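Fill in residues.
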């Protein structure tokens, strides 16, 4: 049974503060210290609408500042034909991975361009009526076009500009969240060191 989501966050990629707000959310909810943090970017380069995941994957692996495992790129996409194999491989890893799943989806006309983040799995291929197992501890979905009729054709005729722009916002926010995580840890370490050095200088041992 799918676990209920405890947060459901939606923001349009064109909003001026979208990248910063997404990075804030990712910083709060993605365990960047996890030993097996995996970003699974689902989709195919054969469809402009369904290329959101691989576009995000490409941008993440091209960022030298992003050290985590990224599955799903334009060159090596993760899609309906190899998703089960990918999941089986992930299940062999120790410790069990914490998976961030990224995929395109269809929605209402007014929601096109929205990025949806939830702490629950996503169901790949749902937009085109494919039965695939859920994947992800956190899901990031981008609404690329209108759903409800001839979904495969709609995805294939989605504007690449929309898909690419959304992928850039997601990738930039993930990279920014990781950098902010590093900075946060550095500040904590510095504050602890300053506190410890101050105790040594004052000589608290004399007050025992």
């Amino acid at each position: 049974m799918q676990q209920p989501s405890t947060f459901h966050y939606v923001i349009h990629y064109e909003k001026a503060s979208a990248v910063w707000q997404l990075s804030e959310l990712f910083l709060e909810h993605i365990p960047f210290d996890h030993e097996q943090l995996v970003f699974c970017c689902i989709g195919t380069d054969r469809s402009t609408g369904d290329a959101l995941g691989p576009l995000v994957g490409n941008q993440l692996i091209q960022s030298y500042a992003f050290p985590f495992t990224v599955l799903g790129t334009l060159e090596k996409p993760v899609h309906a034909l190899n998703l089960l194999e990918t999941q089986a491989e992930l299940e062999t890893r120790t410790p069990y991975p914490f998976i961030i799943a990224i995929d395109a989806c269809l929605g209402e006309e007014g929601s096109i361009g929205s990025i949806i983040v939830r702490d629950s799995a996503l169901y790949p291929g749902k937009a085109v009526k494919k039965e695939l197992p859920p994947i992800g501890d956190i899901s990031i979905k981008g609404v690329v076009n209108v759903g409800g009729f001839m979904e495969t054709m709609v995805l294939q005729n989605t504007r690449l500009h929309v898909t690419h722009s959304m992928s850039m916002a997601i990738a930039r926010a993930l990279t920014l969240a990781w950098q902010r995580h590093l900075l946060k840890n550095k500040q904590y370490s510095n504050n602890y060191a300053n506190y410890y050095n101050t105790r040594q200088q004052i000589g608290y041992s004399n007050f025992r």
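The radius of gyration is 20 Å.
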